[in-house]
Amino acid sequence: MHFLVSFSNFKGSLTNEEACTLACEELRRLGHTATALPLGDGGKGTFTYLKTSPSVQIKTHAITGAFGDPRTAPSYWKLGASRKQEIYLESTDAIGYPPNTPEKRDALGATSRGFGEWLLTIEKELQGMPCELFIGLGDSAISDAGRGMLEALGDIRFPKWKITVLCDVDNPLCGPQGSARVFSPQKGASAQQVEVIEKRNIEFAQETERAFGVKVAQMPRAGSAGGLAAALHAYLGAELVSGSKLVLKASGFEELLKEHDCLLVGEGKTDAQTLSGKAPWAAIQTAEKLGKKSILISGSLGEGHEKIKAAGLIAKLASGREPEVKIALLSSLNQALNTLCLMEV
Question: Which of 41, 69, 159, 290 to pair with 101, CA 20 to 30 A apart?
Answer without folding.
Answer: 41
